[in-house]
Structures
1.
Amino acid sequence: MPAQRTGIGVVNLHENDPSAQSIEINSNNSFSGNTISVDYGQLKGHVLNPLDNLEGTLENLEPTESNLGNVDQVLVDSSDSNNHTQIQIVNSTADSGHSEGTLLRLSDGSVVSSLIDNSQIVSASSLTTASSQAVKRQLNASSSSPMVTKVIITKNPNSSQPQAVPIQLNPSSLQSLQQGQALTFNQTMAPAVSVVPQSAQTPTKTITISQQGIMSPQKQYFALPVSSPKPGITKIPISPAKTPTKITMIPVTVGKSPQRIAPASGVSVLSKSLSDSATYTAVPVSSGPTMITLSPSKVFKQGTVVQQRPGQIQFQQNQAITINKPQTQGGVRQVAIPLSSMQQIQGSKVQYVRLVAPTQQGQTAGIKTSLASLVQGKQIFTTSGAHPLTIQQAGGQQMKITLPVQSNHPRPVIASSNTQTVQRILLPAGPNQLQLRAVPSTLAQIQTSGVSSLSNLPPGTTILSSGNAGSGQGFALVPTMLSQMAQQQQQATVQVRPMTSQATVIAQPLQNRQEFIPIASNNPVLSASVANSTRNNNSEGAIEPTGARPRKPCNCTKSQCLKLYCDCFANGEFCHNCNCTNCANNLIHEEERSRAIKSCLDRNPMAFHPKIGKGQIGNGNRRHNKGCNCKRSGCLKNYCECYEAKIMCSNACKCFGCKNFEESPERRTLMHLADAAEVRVQQQTAAKTKLSSQISGVPSKPPTSTATGERLPYTFITSEVAEATCACLLAQAEESERMKMPPVVQERMVIEEFGRCLLQIIESANKTKELIIFAE
DNA sequence: GAGTTTGAAACT
DNA sequence: CAGTTTCAAACTC
């Protein structure tokens, strides 16, 4: 094994100065030429984010700088008692030469730090080879000093002893690392050795950052590595305890075969509280689109800018957005999100995606003006608050897309750049809305064919484009899973899914997912609703009153819901309202989950592909791709995946005693029984509906009490209540029609709305009845 | 609800 | 790849 060598990691933010190209870290010691220039123009691989309880691993960490050698580990250790954050980079290069000014470039092209070498010895270090023990040296910075002091522990070139080197930094550049918090990157394939500074070949450099007097509780960031072009997963799980909002980025693969959703194989996770303030970050992805969806309930109700101008959220080069308390400017709420820095737009430090709430014309115009003045010649687009959404590309081209306007939902966002590679559309996510997406090949396709289709997309949908205009790029609509967010401490989740140049299929716990049609019909987009799992077929089409597709809760006890035994996991969904124990199929255990996904995919690359595909004969013939292996059930029980999916066994099956074929009398008998049962259910449903309608026809002023004097709850079905109910039903009908739902779904939505109305009436009646009883 | 059966998934 | 074990859902009582 090569000798260990360590370097210094420096993570800085230049939050308040988007125009800054670099930060100079000047060491006031004898280190000759000891000026380190951190090119923030290249800091695109990192997200600066709150540092709450940051711990995690960075996999596939590898430098590409030839003079850096192999980086084994990047460790951040906050365990020192002086509230200093330390970052350590462990390098296995045998060469102990200097590396001043060297940029540590991760495999995704991002820069995580600069390295300093040959710094002056300040003190000795007690570094050990303990694998998990980071270098722990810090400089006791003066608490009264407005400057941030960094301490570098490095080898004295003359004595081979570790040393600490203070570095004066511009405070504005260090609003990043929160004291006492750790960010750990581990390269899983790397040697476990952490630091061996004793040897002349193993200089150790550690940086400690003191934030005294600097940190703003609303401006705390960390550097977050993002996806690697390799299949491996890079991510940093973040404890949700203090960071109830998460954004999950999943690597986007372009040019590979179409993939169905894998369960959120998070590449990076970022989280942040969305209480009064929040920070969001876009994580660039090395080879694909990057996308952010912000929870509207939090962001767009509260969301406006803190540091930036009123009513705006800037996403600057440091890739962090801080959203503070609700602000409005002329009644307009805005969220400006920059396009991913991955786009590598040169020269433009600030780019925006603008989200504009409905407003009056003049106000909108004012915002546009403001935006134009903000974006330095690289304005990507603007949107108006009116129903037609205008996308203005940098080239001056405009396109208008009419999107549904829903109350209580933020405006959709459509971002595009005519010169860059990422195009995206963010539809504001609503609560309990999950979506299925699919895929026009270009933004122009959206323009030409997607105008009406877009209106079908549910709030929260994100459409991604992998870029490479005109060369087979694809859009992927990415679901948000707000219902799960709600469960998981109201975390907001954004996921970037693997994408192909042809089609992208994303399966998520999508409510209504079978209801959304692909934007581009010419793309072989597979719907997640198309039998991605046989076990869900029975419930397809059923929609909860919330609009959610009901999903059977799992009961896993031993698998942690991280194996394909678990239906949730197998379907690429997080567990939600399940009965499982020790569940790790959630955002909190994103790292474990990602590993499990990877493991499953290693065993079977098709593990997350639909089990039920189309047969060879015709499009209408479904068949089990793998076939069943039943031995005792005769393939006439739900043990059999074919039978459960209501399809015949095929020659792909290896079952014994199969009775699940067309002419099978047993099967026909079962089918008849099943049909009869279904008819009974339908009759019962119809009866209930009829009863409901009769209830709604109760006279508006019925008797107020029974013969015994008990007051009747239907007293409250007054004409006003009936009218209000009808209004609700009409509104729901119009809404569903406007969303261009299929007629069946429209009917269902109206009926469900009626159910909700009834529940409200009953509740109100009962409450009032209780009050009356109490009063009596 | 407890226990049994079943077959897919995981493991060896 | 085959045999075995594990697992959770389906099923039975």
2.
Amino acid sequence: MRVSRLMLITLRDVPAEADIISHQLLIRGGFIKRLAGGIYAYMPLLWKVLKKISLIVEEELSSKGCLQTLLPQLQPSEIWEKSGRWKSYTEGEGIMFSLKDRQGKELGLGPTHEEVITQIISQTIHSYKQLPINIFQIQTKFRDEIRPRFGLMRSREFIMKDAYSFHANENDLQSTYSEMRNAYQNIFTKCGLDFVCVDADSGAIGGAASQEFMVTAASGEDLILISSDGKYGANQEKAVSIIEEGELLEPNKPSIIVTPNQKTIEELCNYNNFHPSQIVKVLAYLATCDDNKKYPVLVSIRGDQEINDIKLSNELSHKLKQTVLDIRIISNEDVQKQGINNIPFGFLGPDLSDNLLVEAKTWEKQFIRIVDNSAKDLKSFICGNNIKDEHKIFYNWSLINTEQLRCDIRKAKLGDRCIHDKTKKLEECRGIEIGHIFQLGTKYSKSLNATFTNEKGIEDYFWMGCYGIGISRLAQAAVEQNHDDLGIIWPVSIAPFEVIIIIANMKNTDQKCLAEDIYQKLLKNRVDALLDDRDERAGIKFKDADLIGIPWRIVAGREASSGVVELHNRKTKTTETLDINSVLKKLSEEFNTEKP
RNA sequence: CGGGGCGUGGCGCAGCUUGGUAGCGCGGGUGCUUUGGGAGCACUAGGUCGCAGGUUCGAAUCCUGUCGCCCCGACCA
């Protein structure tokens, strides 16, 4: 390709719309153009990057025996209703774009394809002899994000590779799952990325085991906790740890203390010389569920710890046997709307009476009571007395007369000890999620009634896995991780071009001829070369080459008349002066293509 | 959804307080000079100032509404 025909338009100024470096560089380099919030055009340069990433993915998955397909993006609501996701994906903060056709039939634009593929496989595959199947597509996905941002990192339309596997039993699923994990490691390594694989929450997709692949970067949206020995890594949403030892409250006679206006843990500690770890903090949540009911939830946790809303939501879903659509702290406003005015916020105890809910208009009339291990383990503690300006002290759980569901809903954090080795501590870093693999189990096959005949001749549900890679996000993550003050430094394997040849002065015939000669020979050797033949000054060409991040640069310049050019490496910033044959030889070796 | 900010040629911005129908830099075009790190000079094209009302003799500027974009938050008694 010649730069003169590339519609390359680079910007000198940093665009106002972009906040993080990768987004700025992609716009400045002419890789993307914004059409609307969270909707971008992939310009020719970026499209080449996306195709290279796709090719790496396709080759790796093919080698693992995966099939490629292309599924419909427009999907009928019925299959989503069957799987039970239509409501949670379209209502409230749902992420699915939905519409009605002229018949009034409801349709959605696919944010993911579990329903579609499950339906199709169940109609096609009937016997265990045809299993396992692992099928994938690379396609545009649509998600109506609450807040699109950072360019391709969180957009409403994006390119994703999604794969789905079908198995006769759980063992087979597990072996494909680990094969896919292996494939992902190969893919991201080939893409030249620094990444980690961490345990993850499976979120709205559901299912059992799940892991995420994260490109480490300071601007990452996810917080990751990793053990100092590297053996354990998890998204904070999922992370577990051993809690720090607290300050023991020596058991004594249980009593009531007066704590005027001491509503926060901090105030309580300051006035009474308590340690936060001696207090049971009680928070009131409201969970909105699939059945349209709103459940008040009372959560107890050790005073110095924080609640992980994801874990809490999962525990509630499990207990209520349905999806929790939303979970949030109950506000004063909520309480007033319900016509309940006597909840003594700031002085709540785990045994807050259900009688307070009698007047509630739309809420369930009973608290679901959950206690985190950290609080339940306390032998003697302080907690609210359910009366304004009063706390209990030296209390223990035998004095609390309400049934409590004990579980882990605590947010693991930096410095906590690791489960696998108490001497190791958790460290924090930020990551960009570029891949996610799930063992779905039989969740979708059951809800969509997708069965096959097993070895015994009995109808059985498919065991399923699903595996995603954010192709367009990966491209931007690569930029976030590989740039300098001059611009992008693409990893060679996914660079839009491998080599750029610059003609320093277009009026110099020697330079032009030499550059043209090298260009043709590189193309012949299947090196992906770009020739900057624009009638521009050398400086502009250098700046552009650096900005768009081509890994190798050849300059036909001053010594062109003697057949000598410069070979410059974008990443190492090293330059060699070589004759044309040496350049071709070196690059051919570099890209492992045929010799000239 | 809540809070904050911004909408002025393709891009980045000034002008708005104190109304008098637009300006700077980059970019585009033409010409000359220059030619190894975003050149210089000259000429030139391009905007009814997001949109809709209102106030006024007169609105980019003041008022009301509306739309769009960006940022922060969705944090805990």
3.
Amino acid sequence: MPPNQPGPPLPHEREYARHSNAWPFAEARALEKRIGDTVPGKGYVLFETGYGPSGLPHIGTFGEVARTSMVRHAYSVLSDIPTRLFAFSDDMDGLRKAPDNVPNKEMLEQHLGIPLTAIPDPFGTHESFGAHNNARLRSFLDSFGFEYEFQSSTECYKSGRFDQALLAVLKHYDRVINVILPSLGPERRATYSPFLPVCEKTGRVLQVPVIERDVDAGTIVYEDEDGAKVEVPVTGGHCKLQWKVDWAMRWAALGVDYEMSGKDLIDSVKLSGKICRVLGASPPVGFTYELFLDENGEKISKSRGNGLAVEDWLKYAPPESLSLFMYQKPKAAKRLFFDIIPRYVDDYLAHLERYPGQEESKRLDNPAWHIHRGYPPYEDAHLSYNVLLNLASVCHSEDKAVLWHYISRYRPDATPETAPILDALAGYAVNYYRDFIKPLKKYRKADEGDKKALEDLATTLEALPAGADAATIQTEVYEVGKRHDYADLKAWFRALYEILLGQEQGPRMGSFIALYGMGETIGLIRRAVAGEDLGS
RNA sequence: GGGCGCGUAGUUCAGUGGUAGAACAACGGACUUUUAAUCCGUGUGUCGCAGGUUCGAUCCCUGCCGCGCCUACCA
């Protein structure tokens, strides 16, 4: 989240942080135990998040960075040792299959197996496909104001930054593969190599057997796809490492101290941890978060498209509400679908509202503290999001200003200037109305009886003095209804809602007309009388 | 086979080692010459089951039952 205006300082933060039950503090304390009191040799404590750039950033990417940032901030309360966060992109991975949601799929399919950073950008805007997706990742993360440092796998390999660790893998080759082999089936076991040479002829990342290795020279000999024996250095980007070894080597080379990952990677974390130790380093403190489920409790899969996109959430709710979702119970498999959004918005508002009145020790357990990096804004939201959603659907308007007329009735003390959060929520509510309520509206055509009554209503309204109040209008609407042929007044009002607003229920007509505008209402009525389709 | 999570009010879910909470739904009432909204009020829930630790467990530990997910080829 973007930085807020600082609230009052919390003088005893560190003391309370030692005892807070909030999970980011529990994590930070585990990390503190690993680090101790002395600054690590590299000069900082390193957090890492991973990103596979064959796809675009998604809600899980957001979750991992948001949660890691929360732990990082919690740690910074406990310790004065500087921290850094690497957003690491596995952009040297060979392309496994062309994604469906990108152009030039045919072109991509000709580059299967080639590192993402060596494939032309199908969008034509960057120097490679990997670079394009890396840029998308960065602008995605930047849009939330995350503090991080981008790191490219390709760069690390090619620049020699990984060389020492790569040579260590070569040196401990047997011990490394002995960690991996027991986890493999017999067929794969026969051909497995932690080194995946990048073929000089085809550019592809090869999965081929390694025949010889020369620790002193730092090279391996492999059998190429055409049967030729080729010797290459393991350093300098000539070889990439197979996934689990890659992760371990990276931990060792960069000195990663903390990295979280999804439940699906539990076994990988274990194996990579062992390999990391073989390489002489200790694996980072880890945290396993649960995967998200869809509305029906089924797993979210990109191919089925049953997930919820970040953009969908942000269209209807502030980013802080999504942060709250990520904060709450990271170890529980939560259902992630559209209907939960309003509740998270209102929960977020409740936490925000509760914050200023809380004792300092309790404030560190308040999600708002973690979402806002220790400085939640002091602001009264005045109204819940659910009330605003109701208001938006009832007042029949895509105009935030009209919504504000209604809001002023409830909270005369609030204006868009003094209540920016409320103002933003009104905007989200309007989006919600436009996308979910409005399409469901079904306008009934006025029949002859309706038309007579409606025309009567229009003339009656015209006769009213300018600035007539809601009660006066309400009385007139009521009187018009009595003059016409409706079973009861309930039927008259329902007719108004169905014909004018496209819904079975609606606001009190007097208030509605006063706020919607006398002229506008008369116009609306005349259009209905003329038989126009108000739904268009 | 290995691993993880969940099981709290009709529903969706919070929650904490010390009388159990919210939202929605439901019900009752107020107000409004309609409805909705709004306002007030209403919950005796075996906190999955059984043990254990504790002065005290919904919360910690163990076992069990139910549901679900991940993983075993690739990253």
